[in-house]
Amino acid sequence: MYIVQSIVQVPEHKAEELVEVYRNRSRSVDRQPGFVSFQLLQSETTPGELIVHMSWDTKESYMAWVQSSDFKRIHELEKAYPDQELTDIKPAVRRYLVRAE
User: Fold this and answer.
1) Looking at the chain, which terminus has fewer C-beta neighbours within 10 angstroms, N or C?
2) 90, 97, 78: which is closest to 21 by C-alpha?
3) Which residues form the ABM domain (predicted)?
4) Percentage of the chain with pLDDT > 70?
5) Within 10 A of 62 (CB to CB), how many other CB atoms are there?
6) Domain ranges of the chain
7) What is the SS3 assignment for 81?
8) What is the predicted pLDDT for the residue at 21?
9) pLDDT by residue (tens digit) across 26-59?
10) What is the pLDDT of residue 58?
11) Do 54 and 29 form a contact (C-beta atoms < 8 A)?
12) b/e string for 65-98 if b means 16 or more Cβ within 10 A?
C-alpha cells in the first residue's frame, strides 16, 4: 500500500471553509484504478493544520492519478478559488510505503 499526505496550514478562521471544500469534493479520485481511501484530518491542537490523507494500492496507481487529466483539471480549479487567502497556500506533500499492518 502507498500513502500520500498533503499537509496544509491555513489561518484558523479559514479551516472550516477548507473543510467544506473537501466535504464537497468532486470524488473523481475515488474512481481511479488503485485508489483505496481518502480522509481529511484536522489537528486537535492546531485547528489550522489539515492533512489530506489518501491510500493507494501502489505507487504506480498514485502516479497514474497525478498524470491524469482529472488531476490536472481539479488542481487548475483550485488556482481559480475565489478566496485568495486559501489559493496561495502550498501543501507539503509526504509519500510513504506501508511496511507493516
Assistant:
1) C
2) 78
3) 2-90
4) 90
5) 21
6) 2-97
7) coil
8) 86
9) 899 999 999 999 999 999 999 999 999 999 999 9
10) 97
11) yes
12) beeeeeeeeeeeeeeeeeeeebeeeeeeeeeeee
**Grid cell digits, residue 3:** 500513502
Q: Report which of 44, 54, 59, 36 is spatially closest to residue 12, judged by C-alpha positions.
A: 44
The 3 state secondary structure assigned to 25-71 is: CCCHHHHCCCEEEEEEEECCCCCCEEEEEEEECCHHHHHHHHCCHHH
CA distance 46 to 35: 29
Class of domain 2-97: alpha beta
- Total-model pTM: 0.87
- 14's CB contacts (< 8 A; 6+ apart) are 48, 83, 85, 86
| Mean pLDDT, rounded, for 12-27 | 90
